[in-house]
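Renewal narrative, Specific Aim 1. Our central claim is that a sequence can be written position by position from structural information alone. The example that follows is taken directly from our test logs and has not been curated for this report. It begins with the structure tokens describing the chain, in the order in which they were read.
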């Protein structure tokens, strides 16, 4: 079953309900379980890269939006040092978001090689 972050079933999330202000913010946020389901579908259809993306998104589903946006900004080229990115990776690992933490560490290595660290 797919559901919103609030737990409301997806079939209750309609444009009409949104227009009538019957849905809250957490009703339009996706639930980690729904993202995991999408990852399994992608995997079953031979798309492991998309499955990995869905799984990283599932890890971020419980991270506050402000924090996600700060992370996004930190990952832009020339914005963060290697130490900043390692700190971000540790923060992600603590959420827990180990796949996202590993992606940040990989990005730090690539940024270092390409001269994109801040």
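The sequence written for that structure reads:
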């Amino acid at each position: 079953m797919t559901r919103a972050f609030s737990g409301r079933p997806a079939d209750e999330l309609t444009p009409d309900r949104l227009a009538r202000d019957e849905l809250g913010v957490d009703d339009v946020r996706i639930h980690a379980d729904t993202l995991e389901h999408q990852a399994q579908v992608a995997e079953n259809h031979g798309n492991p890269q998309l499955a990995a993306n869905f799984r990283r998104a599932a890890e971020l589903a419980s991270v506050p939006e402000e924090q996600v946006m700060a992370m996004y900004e930190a990952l832009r080229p020339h914005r963060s040092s290697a130490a900043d990115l390692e700190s971000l990776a540790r923060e992600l690992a603590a959420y827990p978001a180990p796949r996202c933490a590993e992606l940040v560490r990989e990005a730090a290595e690539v940024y270092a090689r390409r001269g994109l660290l801040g």
